[in-house]
# Entry
Amino acid sequence: MYKYVVRRFLLMIPVIIGVSFFVFFTMKLSPGDPARMVAGSEADEETVRQIRAELGLDQPLLTQYVNYMFKLVQGDLGVSFSSGKSVSGEIASRLPATAKLAFFSMIIAIVVAIPIGILSATKQYSLADNLSMVAALLGVSIPNFWLGLMLIIVFALNLGLLPSGGSEGFKSLILPSVTLGVGSMASFTRTTRSSMLEVIRQDYIRTVRAKGVNEKKVIRRHALRNALIPVVTVIGLQVGTLLGGAVVTETVFSWPGIGRLMIESIKKKDEPVVLGCLIVFAVCFSMINLLVDILYAYIDPRIKSQYR
# Structure
């Protein structure tokens, strides 16, 4: 297991290089001059040239990229063009808000989806099964931004029960968490149902039932654990989706997280901040995938033996 974890950490290096290379040159090809945005629309050309030199934007693109990677290896994500602050500091100040939003979204999705998926599998083709599958299909199909706006209109504007944005207290977390969690909820429900259906048809489940074991115990102790591996896989993948979805959701609800910071930085063409945010996303996604693989070993001993 130790060698496997070390190998996975080493594989993160080409991932980070690939993400940084793609984003760096994409930002350079996008319209707009960062130096002009920093100087302001009324600044003369001499001032713009001076700022461009100070930011290192007058160097060849490959040189700029090599310099950026050299600093990144030392743990330096650079300095924001617009605020002049450390990118690491700006991301660190926003990361807890995004982590909190993703965590509560995931909790909502898991708590709601897994019981519904189990119910759908044990009551296949029933009314409850059909309704849950229709709801899951709607959940996957509804865009985050539309759902967020609808929740704001209903619960914030019409009913006045919850705030429409910001991060003032727990109530401010409810609407964005639900908005972000609905898509994941739908995926978890469908995956849990299909996995449970496959497991409960296995011979060993029939044997347990033939011994007279209580049906709830059969589902909880024998079927669910073996059905969890595909669900855990989807949960790990959905964390990356949550981080991507947080970009839109945080903007809709004015949530002060990394997603909103990245959108604001793209508008300002603040390249170091955009690069820093995406690198953090890539590292988080890789770490979560590693954690999911380790969890496999604890859920299924057969997988643990493969690491030896």
Observations:
- The chain is about 80% helix and 0% strand.
- Residues 153 and 164 are 8 Å apart (CA to CA).
- Residues 215-252 form the longest helix (38 residues).
